[in-house]
Amino acid sequence: MNATTIRRIILASMLTAAPMAALMGGKAWAESPVDNYGLFCVQCHGTKGVGRGINAPSLAVQPRNHTSAKDMGALSDDNIFKAIKEGGVSVGKSTQMPPFGGVLTDQEIKDLVKYLRVMCKC
Fold it and tell me: What CATH number labels 3-120?
C-alpha cells in the first residue's frame, strides 16, 4: 500500500460515508478492488470473506460468505451491485449493510462485484 491509500484508510476509520465522499470529490478511494474490499468490507465479511469480520458477532444478521460459490452464484451481478451501492435493504436483506454509493463510484462498485466473483470462484 502506498501513502495515499494509508491516509485514506485512516480517514475511513474516522469519518462517516457522507463526509468521506465530500472529501474525496468523486475520486477513487483505493488503487484496486482488493484495497476497497479491505477498506470497506472486511469489518463485517472478514479478511477472507467468510462472513466473520470483527463486527460480525454484534450484527443481528450474519454477513454473507463471499467465498461460497453456492450462495454467491445464486445472486446476479446487478443484485450485488445494488446491495453495495444502495445497502442491504435495497435487495431485501439486512438493514445493517450500509449503502456505499455515496463513497464509491459506480466503476469501483462494478470492480468490487468482479472481485467478489473471483472470491467465490463463481
Answer: 1.10.760
